[in-house]
Automatic annotation (TrEMBL):
<keyword id="KW-0119">Carbohydrate metabolism</keyword>
<dbReference type="Pfam" id="PF04616">
    <property type="entry name" value="Glyco_hydro_43"/>
</dbReference>
<keyword id="KW-0378">Hydrolase</keyword>
<dbReference type="InterPro" id="IPR052176">
    <property type="entry name" value="Glycosyl_Hydrlase_43_Enz"/>
</dbReference>
<keyword id="KW-0326">Glycosidase</keyword>
<dbReference type="InterPro" id="IPR006710">
    <property type="entry name" value="Glyco_hydro_43"/>
</dbReference>
<comment type="similarity">
    <text>Belongs to the glycosyl hydrolase 43 family.</text>
</comment>
<dbReference type="InterPro" id="IPR023296">
    <property type="entry name" value="Glyco_hydro_beta-prop_sf"/>
</dbReference>
<keyword id="KW-0858">Xylan degradation</keyword>
<feature type="signal peptide">
    <location>
        <begin position="1"/>
        <end position="19"/>
    </location>
</feature>
<keyword id="KW-0732">Signal</keyword>
<protein>
    <submittedName>
        <fullName>Beta-xylosidase</fullName>
    </submittedName>
</protein>
<keyword id="KW-0624">Polysaccharide degradation</keyword>
């Protein structure tokens, strides 16, 4: 009888786990925008299912998500290939922000960074003039940062036998960078940024920038995304261009901390509860990279009085697995 009960319990647990996996969200290169009493999540969808572009999911608690009730379609689409937008393929790594009453999305398509806008958070996001931000070279993983003095900066990745992070002043009126200000952020220097589990050139990508007490904090991912050691660290500077000092205890998100492979490329945001969180993606399974799964982890911010900077860590035992409602 005990054996039967044990078998039944294990079978039920396996069915529950399978159902949970089917309801998980498979967005990579993720970001979360917070407005009103809700969270809005978008990212790289991957695969060939559905139209090329981006879609929103919304939530009140970060755990259960659904297509917004007021969405323009049943997919939650906010930007679509060919609808007054640049790009034919490879729609990756979106960021949503609002400025002076207008919503913006910056994203990657055709290995170019792009800026589109909308008067509604739910879109559609379109361009007044179709084209990339900077067509002079391939550049991906854009992040637009507004400084306290009103200046804007574009952080992105450019290729040079590897992926390197760059910063440049950004003109919101023209949607272009000021080329003379373009500067590489830093080189690959730390052991965690290059582990032997997947050989590749230098890769640093997926930037997010925040400013606290006149210090700039640049969060980024390192290693190839197919590496099980794809991970997240940060660096600190006194100006938007650096020089950047990497945190000595990097990485702050890694499989050894959150328990799942390929933990990287996301965004930092403040929750409705005033708690900091980082949203990121992981590998599909221990033996398979894609489609990648979405995760959210609480972030701990600590003021280091002696160093005069904040330090960041995550609560690796409190990772949130976001799921779709009603499936």
């Amino acid at each position: 009888m005990k054996s039967i009960l044990l078998y039944s319990f294990l079978l039920f647990s396996a069915i529950q786990a399978s159902a949970q996996a089917k309801r998980e969200i498979f967005f990579a290169d993720v970001t979360i925008y917070v407005e009103g009493s809700k969270y809005y999540l978008t990212g790289s969808k991957g695969g060939s299912d559905g139209p090329q572009g981006f879609a929103f999911l919304e939530s009140k608690d970060l755990k259960t998500w659904a297509v917004p009730a007021k969405s323009q379609d049943s997919l939650g689409t906010i930007l679509t290939k060919g609808d007054h937008t640049f790009g034919t393929k490879g729609f990756w790594a979106p960021q949503i922000f609002k400025d002076k009453g207008t919503y913006y999305i910056t994203y990657t398509a055709d290995e170019q960074t792009v800026l589109a806008e909308s008067k509604s958070l739910l879109g559609p996001y379109r361009q007044r003039e179709i084209g990339p931000i900077d067509g002079s070279e391939k550049n991906i993983d854009s992040y637009v940062f507004k400084d306290t003095d009103g200046k804007y900066y574009l952080y992105c990745v450019r290729f040079d036998k590897g992926n390197y992070l760059y910063a440049a002043e950004f003109d919101m009126n023209t949607g272009k960078i000021k080329p003379q200000t373009l500067k590489r952020c830093f080189e690959r220097t730390e052991p965690w940024e290059s582990t032997p589990n997947y050989k590749s050139g230098p890769i640093m990508e997926g930037p997010t920038v925040i400013k606290l007490k006149n210090k700039y904090y640049l969060f980024y991912s390192a290693n190839h995304f197919q590496n099980i050691d794809y991970a997240i660290g940060y660096a600190v500077a006194d100006s938007p261009y650096g020089p950047w000092v990497k945190y000595k205890n990097n990485p702050i998100i890694h499989r050894s901390i959150v328990g799942e492979n390929g933990s990287g490329h996301g965004d930092l945001f403040e929750g409705l509860d005033k708690q900091l969180y980082y949203v990121y993606h992981i590998h599909n399974s221990p033996n398979k990279v894609g489609p990648r799964r979405t995760r959210i982890v609480p972030v701990v911010k600590h003021w280091d009085e002696r160093a005069g900077v904040y330090t960041f860590s995550v609560k690796g035992n409190e990772v949130i697995v976001p799921v779709l409602a009603g499936e």
